[in-house]
Structure formats: structure tokens, C-alpha cells
Amino acid sequence: MIEWIITPxxxxxxxxxxxxxxxxxxxxxxxxxxxxWLVEHPPMYTAGTSAKDADLRxxxxxxxxxxxxxxxxxxxxxxxxxxxxxxDVGARGHDVRAFVKQLExxxxxxxxxxxxxxxxxxxxxxVWVPRPEKPATATGSMAEDKVAAIGIRLRKWxxxxxxxxxVDPDLSHFSGIVPCGITEHGVTSLVDLGLPVTLPDVxxxxxxxxxxxxxxxxxxxxPS
Length: 224
What we know:
- This protein has helices spanning 13-29, 96-112, 199-214, and strands spanning 2-6, 34-39, 44-47, 63-66, 73-76, 80-86, 119-121, 124-130, 144-155, 158-166, 186-187, 219-221.
- By secondary structure, it is an alpha/beta fold.
């Protein structure tokens, strides 16, 4: 069984991190079910294991949290859906790359419900949308914006951290970092793309597409 939990309001990042750590330990011990946990955070920056100091442009703007997930700097804040993915990757074949591809496919399938074509790029983790209406990049290539980020960690083959989808965050908050170390392309959101989408809309799309990609339908749990 996979539990599907949505926590309303803004969740403190360290509180979420501690809860993930505890849940991962319980899953590894066989005393808890796997879990998809959907949250929303206050404005903040997080640094992955590959983060470079120079990519934190405004260190005093928001709280900055060092994490042990993969990746570089990213932003979390209101209007962004964060899905923490606590799944047994060992039971799914011990293939981390295949698991990350499943996460990418999950996001792309959810975006497709809003007629948004998400794409992946070699060497750039996350999900991107082409922006032909924008000026070309300095190298002459088509502009592309990131709409979703992916960063995970494994412990005893149990995953945690996960994905974040920009639904309607304040996109100006991304200017305090170099998102994921990429300067040539920007970031966008579903609302920025002209879609009147809400977090509950995205939650429903994620729930439906999860079963499509992972072959399992999570059980919805309402927090007490």
C-alpha cells in the first residue's frame, strides 16, 4: 500500500525533513507503508549536494537550508506543490536512473492533463517547456523554462525528497539563486503559462497519473 497524504497550509522545511527521515526509517524496517506526501513551504532556498556558493545570489533574502538530496540550489514557496516521494526503490528493481525517469514521466503525465507538454533534457534534471514566443538564448537556441524540479536521496533503497511543480509561486523569488545551476534558461509556472490552475487541480492530476506511471493507486489518507 502507498499512502497519499496532503498537508494543508505551509509546512516548515526542517519539520518536513525530520518527518521524512522518520518515515523512511519505518518503511525500511517494514513498520510503515510507502508514502507520497504533498506539502507547500514558506519561501526558502535549499542547497543540494552539488550546490555552488556562487549560485546563491541573495543569501539574506530567505532562509537557506542545506540538504543531502541530489542537485543544486532550488526555491520552494507558496504556490508550489512539493511532493515528497518515500518509495522502496529496492523493491522496484534497484535502478535509480529508471526511478528518476519514472518521476519525470509522472510529472509529464500530470502536466499533460492541462495540455502542457513537459520535456526532459540530457544533462538538465527536471521538466521543461519550450517557449518559442520568447527571444532565443545567447547561443541561438529556443528559450526553455523549467516548470518542475526533481531531487531525491536514497537510504537503504528508500527514496525521499522528490519533486516540485510550479503552480503559481512568485517567480521573482527565483532570482535569489541560479536555479539548479542553469543560467541560460528560466523558470515558469502553470499560471505563468496562462492556465488558471490551482494546487488541488495539480494534486488530482498527480494522483491520477501516479497509477498510470507506477502501476499502483495510492490510498488517500486525511491527516487528523
